[in-house]
Structures are given as structure tokens and as C-alpha cells.
Design brief:
Elements lengths: L1 E3 L1 H9 L6 E5 L6 H9 L4 E4 L1 H7 L7 E3 L8 H5 L8 E5 L5 H13 L4 E5 L8 H7 L7 E5 L2 H10 L2 E6 L15 E6 L8 H5 L3 E3 L12 H14 L3
Parallel strand pairs: 2-3, 5-6, 5-9, 6-7, 8-9, 8-10
Antiparallel strand pairs: 1-4, 2-4
Helix pairs in contact: 5-6, 5-9
């Protein structure tokens, strides 16, 4: 969703609309009062060359705000476990492709994950691309955004979750982990994977075995394998 205009953006923020990023043409002057609001809310500002801005957003000529097209829950609401059953969460760290995000949400729904948490910064919007790729899964799953993945991990651990990360240097296979607990799976950026600080906070670090001539899978495919492994482990 795009919100255009200084006044409209300021009103959206005042009314609690979660803004993911601000985009302007280069040399556009943001009023100091509005800039202070962006800084206080920790909203990133991206400046594009004028020609690039107009090509990407042809119906706009100044400042715009980008936000998700669906309503999101708080981290606490998404993580709330159900009585007498183990909870499964998916955390996406800086997933940039909306099709990957949508496909992973669809997979999470299929394999009984109760919720999905996305990082706020350097991550895709949940717009038309993600909605289409999710095949309706977005509307069947509790979804939220988090400012700081490190804080989110600490919170999840404090309420009983075990954190499962994925990395090319992981020492465990998906089948070797005991999933008889609340589980949060973290999938990293398409190119960079999980950040080092995130890896250090994981309770388990897994790697999917594959042909010696290959070392990576598309992130949504990798999560499909892990999601199925967790789902089938209870049978």
C-alpha cells in the first residue's frame, strides 16, 4: 500500500498505521517536524534519483510511505501458544522477495505453523506479490513484524520456545532435532542467509543435506523441507 503526501503520511503514523519505509526523490526536502517523527518511529528513508522514482512510482511526484496491505498483530499475539499443544513459528530475517515471503507463509499454513514474524527493516512488503504467492495463506496465519530479531529471540526463549536456525555451516540435519517443544524456525536473507548475531542465539543450527556440487536452495524451498520435517515429526 502506498500513502502519498506529507499530511497523509503524518496522519497515518498518528493513527498507528505501521509504515515500513519512506521513499522520496533525491533533493526532496522533508520538513524537520516530519523527519523527527520518522526518526522517533525508526522508519527508514530511501532517496531515489528523480527519474528512477518517477519510473517506479509514476502516479506520485514527491514523498510516499510504503506499508503492508494486511493488518498485522503484535509479536506477543503471534507467539501466544495454544494450551496442550506445541506451537510452531516462522521468523523471516530480511526476506526481500515478496514471492518467497508469500510461498513461505503458504507453507507455514500447510504445515500447522500458528504464526509468522517478519523483520521490519530490509524486508518485503506484504502486498500483491506476497498475497498471490501465499494462495490465501496470509489470511489463515497470524502475522506480525518485529523491530529487532535479537530481542524477539530472547522473548521467545523466555516463554518456552527453542530457536532453530538454518545455515550452510549447520552441524545438525532437520531430522536430528527433537521438536517436542515450542519451536521457532528462522530463515535468513536470500543472498546473505542469517546474520552472525542471529546464528549465535540459535539453540539448533541445521543444514539440509544435498549433492556435493550444490550448497544452497531457494529459501522458500528450504523452509518447505524443514516445515514438512517438523510437521511429520509428530506422527
Amino acid at each position: 500500500m502506498i500513502i502519498s503526501g506529507k499530511h497523509e503520511i503524518e496522519e497515518a503514523i498518528k493513527n498507528g498505521k505501521p509504515i515500513l519505509k519512506i521513499v522520496t526523490p533525491k533533493n526532496y526536502h522533508i520538513p524537520s517536524s516530519l523527519f523527527s517523527v520518522f526518526r522517533e518511529e525508526r522508519i527508514p528513508i530511501i532517496q531515489l534519483q528523480k527519474a528512477v522514482f518517477l519510473k517506479k512510482y509514476p502516479s506520485h511526484d514527491s514523498i510516499i510511505a510504503l506499508c503492508d496491505e494486511i493488518s498485522l498483530l503484535s509479536m506477543e499475539e503471534v507467539a501466544q501458544s495454544k494450551e496442550n499443544q506445541y506451537s510452531r513459528l516462522l521468523l523471516m530475517e530480511e526476506i526481500e522477495d515478496p514471492r518467497n515471503a508469500g510461498a513461505m507463509i503458504r507453507t507455514a499454513t500447510c504445515f500447522g505453523f500458528q504464526g509468522v514474524l517478519l523483520t521490519k527493516h530490509h524486508s518485503t512488503l506484504l502486498g500483491k506479490g506476497a498475497l498471490s504467492a501465499s494462495s490465501g495463506g496470509i489470511f489463515q496465519c497470524n502475522i506480525g513484524r518485529i523491530h529487532n530479531i535479537g530481542h524477539a529471540i530472547e522473548y521467545l526463549k523466555s516463554i518456552g520456545y527453542w530457536i532453530v536456525g538454518t545455515d550452510i555451516n549447520g552441524k545438525e540435519s532437520p531430522e536430528s532435532v527433537n521438536y517436542s517443544s515450542h519451536i521457532a524456525v528462522i530463515m535468513g536473507n536470500e543472498k546473505k542467509g542469517l546474520k552472525k548475531k542471529t546464528i549465535e542465539k540459535c539453540d539448533h543450527l541445521i543444514r539440509i543435506p544435498m549433492n556435493a556440487n550444490s550448497n544452497s536452495l531457494n529459501v522458500s524451498v528450504a523452509f518447505g523441507i524443514i516445515g514438512y520435517t517438523i510437521f511429520s515429526s509428530k506422527k
